[in-house]
Design brief:
The structure is a single chain. It contains 4 helices and 6 strands; from the N terminus they run βαβαβαβαββ. The chain starts with a strand and ends in a 21-residue tail after the last strand. The model is unreliable at about 125-135 (pLDDT under 50). It is an alpha/beta fold.
């Protein structure tokens, strides 16, 4: 299975740069199971060295060629192109425009991943401020 993870506030706390260990451990478990691991982030390409340094510092099982940025675009097109089957993300707005065939795992603000389809969406966790370009 091809499994992808968002970077900021999913694998890494964007405020301090520390790993979110519950998600990092899930990534490692997927890798041990034989899944191919990807990072797909909305970051601009010139911020990818920080992602590379994080991956190398914590010895994460993500090959260099499996680290992708969307340059502030929604991730759906990149995920489909890569053939991703499961994606972990902290941004519910990403899920709104994501292909239905991709299993969506919401990384709650408390750092705990939850299946998006069974998640209680009556509580709002929508982002405020910046939203990636929907390409409309």
């Amino acid at each position: 299975m091809k499994v992808s993870f968002d970077f900021d506030d999913t694998l890494c706390c964007s405020l301090y740069g520390d790993p979110l260990w519950e998600v990092v451990n899930l990534m490692k478990a997927h890798h041990e199971k034989g899944d191919e691991i990807f990072i797909v982030t909305t970051r601009m390409h010139y911020h990818m060295p920080e992602v590379d340094m994080f991956v190398e510092s914590y010895n994460l099982p993500v090959k260099k060629e499996n680290r992708h940025c969307t340059n502030m675009k929604y991730k759906n097109d990149t995920l489909k192109k890569l053939g991703i089957e499961k994606h972990f993300d902290d941004n519910p707005d990403e899920f709104d425009c994501m292909d239905k065939s991709i299993e969506k795992i919401f990384v709650h603000p408390d750092g705990v991943p939850k299946d998006w389809e069974s998640f209680d969406k009556t509580r709002t966790y929508r982002r405020t401020g910046f939203q990636p370009d929907r390409g409309i």
